[in-house]
Amino acid sequence: MNDTALWVAIALAASGTYLLRLAGMLAGARQGDGERRFGRLFEPVGPALIAAFLWVEIVPAHSLPNWPHLALQLLAYGVALWVKRRTRNLGVALLSGLLAYAALLTVFAA
Question: What is the Cα–Cα distance from 74 to 82, expressed in whole angstroms?
């Protein structure tokens, strides 16, 4: 990919992000009581973005994932989901999932 194509891709991604945010704000404002509705509308976006970024990092782009490694990751995700449901704190859940993953890697890598 040359420099021009890269900058075009970045500009398109930025424009798409802006338009999606603008559409959500306009939709929330039109419905009245926009502050509460706007908050509820975008509540699942944060965890979805985190999951998307994690998936991109975990699964290789052009090959199948390493299944034993993926099983350890899914166990760590389970820990994170359990902690999220117990504490209702996304930060604590992410930290616990990362620590569980590190512990599982340490135990099963040897």
Answer: 12
Spatial distance between the Cα atoms of 48 and 68, rounded to a whole number of angstroms: 24
Q: What is the pLDDT of residue 19?
A: 83
**For every residue of 7-65, which 3-state class applies, written as one string?**
HHHHHHHHHHHHHHHHHHHHHHHHCCCHHHHHHHHCCCHHHHHHHHHHHHHHCCCCCCC
Find, among 99, 75, 84, the residue nearest to 44 by Cα: 84
Q: What is the pLDDT of residues 23-80, one digit of tens each?
A: 877 776 666 555 565 566 666 666 777 777 776 666 656 665 677 878 888 888 899 8
Contact 100, 79 (CB under 8 A): yes
42, with CB counted inside 10 A (0-12, 13-18, 19+), is middle
User: Which pair of tokens denotes residue 50?
Assistant: 């985190």
Helix 34-41 vs helix 3-30: angle between axes, to the nearest 10 degrees?
A: 140
